[in-house]
Each structure stands twice: as structure tokens, then as C-alpha cells.
Design a protein that fits this description.
Layout lengths: L2 E6 L7 H7 L4 H8 L4 E5 L9 H23 L8 E7 L1 H15 L4 E7 L18 E9 L29 E7 L3 H4 L17 H9 L5 H18 L7 E3 L5 E5 H31 L10
Parallel strand pairs: 1-2, 1-3, 3-4, 4-5, 5-6
Antiparallel strand pairs: 7-8
Helix pairs in contact: 3-4
């Protein structure tokens, strides 16, 4: 059975070379490389303004349609010859992937699985992505827990699965979501990395005196230097307050770097298991036996 995969990643650096480095091991990217897909496509995430979100979803749908047409020309339209179709999207890329599924629905193409990594809709020209369309058989959505205070202005999209219209006689799909105590970055496999503490020099009375009498050395400068030294010392000692991740200059999250690492690993384990279930389910359907759905929250 042929297997098609297309992933759309999250927003990142504008420069493509920098983006490729940062997102090389994102889950959307990794899942395209970790498995033996017959056809595999990947697109970097939309821009911060959200304008390109819709077009990236449209591009994904067009590519999958071309893959399907090529396969039909080679193998026909028998149900057993239909490929496994999986899409994945992180952050704004999740909204783009949902849009692609909407277009595939209109083209009469079923999607076996949709993997969403904290999907958010921050596009100015996109609608109908609050729910996943009914042509998707199984959805797994990894979401950040609201208690993390991560990206508090980012609302999620794709938080439910539409019911298929009854005249088609299609079985309702399955939607599963799970919350993790990590930042928005950890959900996509691009976690925040703890800063490397600089060597801390001891603050001595002689050092303070030298600063006070040196040209331009003012009491305010000394206070700033002392504060910086104390901050570095806390980082070096892994102070639990300093260790909390700041996604913005003014706001700390409620996630430590250790929790970030743990959450990222948990997301990867859960989503890989979900992808395996999607694959097993398709094989079991071809054989006429129900697939196992154990071990999923």
C-alpha cells in the first residue's frame, strides 16, 4: 500500500537557512524522515503575519491531488489500492494543514490521519479551520496546557472533528487530544533551550571601590553590574525562578527548562504511537478487522 505524507511546520526565522537549522528536528519534519513514505512533502511554516497560511494549505492539497492522480493512473481506483494519506501541521502550519483537508474534502479525497501540534489560527485570510473536516478519519492533537502561561494570546484551532453528512453513510472519525506541560515550542519539537551560564566572578570590596573611582564609574553602574552577577549566579545554580522560560522579555511562563524537555519527549512518544495507530487502522480496515485503540487518553 502506498503511503503519502505532507507536513507544514510552524513560524520561525525569516531566513531559510536559519529556519532549516532550527526546524531540522521539529516533529513535522522528523516524521517525514523517520518513516518510509511512498511520497513525502514538507513546507516551512507560514510567515508571522499569517498571510501565507492559506496558500501553504492550498499548495499541500494540490500536491496530494497530483500524487493521487498519478497513483490512479498506475493502479486504478480500487479501494485496496488507495494510499494511506497523512498530513501534519505545527502552530500556524496546523491551520494550513486543516485548510488542506478542507480542499481535499471538496475534491472527494479521504485523509487517514491528521497530526496537529498545537495548531493555531493567526491568519487574516483563512476561515473554517476551527474544526477538522469530516473527511479526516483520525486526528491526534498535542496541545499546551493553559497553566503553562505559554503564548496566552494564541488560541487553538482544530479542536474538534466534524460529523460526516448522513447521506454519504460514512463512519464518524476519531478525535483525540492531550495536554502537555510545555511551551508552544515544545509541542512542535522545537523547545526552548536553557541558556549557558557565564562564569561568575566574586564581588569584592576592592572591585566595587575600583568601579566607583574609575572614569565614568557611577553608583548606578555598580548596581547594574552587581545585579548581573547575581543573576548569572542564580542561573549557574539552577534557581527554580530563573529557570522558568521567558517567551517574551516581560513575561515568564510557568515552565522550567526541565519540564520543557520532558514535555517535548512526551509529545513525541504520544504522537508516534498515534501515527502507528493510524497506519494499523488502515491495514486492519483493508483486512476487515477492527484496529486496536488501546493506550490512548
Amino acid at each position: 500500500m502506498d503511503q503519502f505524507y505532507y507536513g507544514i511546520d510552524g513560524t520561525g526565522p525569516f531566513n531559510d537557512a536559519e529556519y532549516a537549522v532550527k526546524f531540522r528536528n521539529s516533529y513535522v519534519n522528523l516524521f517525514g524522515r523517520e518513516y518510509s513514505w511512498t511520497k513525502q512533502g514538507y513546507d516551512r511554516g507560514p510567515s508571522r503575519d499569517g498571510i501565507s497560511t492559506k496558500s501553504k494549505g492550498s499548495d499541500a492539497a494540490k500536491i496530494i491531488e497530483l500524487w493521487m492522480k498519478g497513483l490512479q493512473a498506475k493502479s486504478g481506483t480500487d479501494e485496496k489500492n488507495k494510499p494511506l494519506v497523512v498530513l501534519a501541521g505545527y502552530s500556524r502550519g496546523g491551520a494550513a494543514a486543516i485548510h488542506a483537508c478542507n480542499l481535499l474534502r471538496d475534491a472527494g479525497i479521504m485523509v487517514d490521519g491528521l497530526l496537529l501540534f498545537d495548531a493555531v489560527d493567526r491568519a487574516v485570510n483563512l476561515s473554517d479551520v476551527e474544526r477538522v473536516p469530516w473527511n479526516v478519519r483520525t486526528v491526534f492533537h498535542a496541545r499546551r496546557n493553559a497553566a503553562t502561561d505559554s503564548r496566552t494570546t494564541f488560541g487553538n484551532c482544530g479542536t474538534s472533528l466534524a460529523i460526516p453528512p448522513s447521506p454519504r453513510g460514512l463512519r464518524a472519525g476519531t478525535y483525540r487530544e492531550r495536554y502537555f506541560h510545555g511551551t508552544h515550542g515544545a509541542m512542535g519539537g522545537v523547545p526552548w533551550v536553557a541558556p549557558v551560564a557565564r562564569p561568575v566572578r566574586p564581588v569584592t570590596a576592592l572591585g566595587v571601590a575600583k568601579a566607583l573611582v574609575s572614569p565614568g564609574g557611577l553608583p548606578g553602574d555598580v548596581a547594574d553590574r552587581l545585579q548581573t552577577m547575581q543573576h548569572n549566579a542564580k542561573v549557574a545554580a539552577h534557581d527554580p525562578v530563573v529557570d522558568k522560560i521567558s517567551e517574551h522579555v516581560l513575561f515568564d511562563t510557568e515552565v522550567t527548562y526541565q519540564q520543557e524537555s520532558e514535555a517535548m519527549a512526551q509529545v513525541g512518544h504520544w504522537m508516534r504511537a498515534g501515527l502507528q495507530m493510524i497506519k494499523n487502522s488502515r491495514y486492519q480496515n483493508i483486512l476487515g478487522r477492527p484496529a486496536s485503540i488501546k493506550n490512548f487518553a
